[in-house]
Specification:
There is one protein chain. This protein has one domain: BolA-like (GMP Synthetase, Chain A, domain 3, 2-Layer Sandwich), CATH 3.30.300.90. The protein is built from three helices and three strands, in the order H-E-E-H-E-H. By secondary structure, it is of the alpha+beta class. 39% of the residues lie in helices and 23% in strands. The longest helix has 12 residues. Helix 1 packs across helix 2.
């Protein structure tokens, strides 16, 4: 079984400038938010692929489901400004 802190550490190791939040109630279904300048100019699919590569082979095995949100810093800032 894998927990959210392991996934978070793997993403941060692979994408050093990333702000990463990973949560799970059951260590099988995860929700992750990843904010990084590495996503600039990349389509959403390419952004997600960066994160998937960081997580490794557990994706689809020990990790049954991953709800993933990827944002650039400017997208994240705009999203947070809208919620204020």
């Amino acid at each position: 079984m894998i927990d959210a802190s392991v996934i978070q550490a793997r993403i941060q190791a692979a994408i050093p400038d990333a702000i990463v939040e990973v949560v799970s109630d059951d260590n099988v279904h995860f929700t992750a938010l990843v904010v990084s300048s590495a996503f600039e100019g990349k389509r959403r699919v390419a952004q997600h692929q960066l994160v998937y590569r960081a997580i490794g082979p557990e994706l689809g095995n020990e990790i049954h489901a991953l709800q993933l949100t990827t944002l650039t810093p400017s997208e994240w800032q705009a999203q947070n400004a809208d919620s204020e």
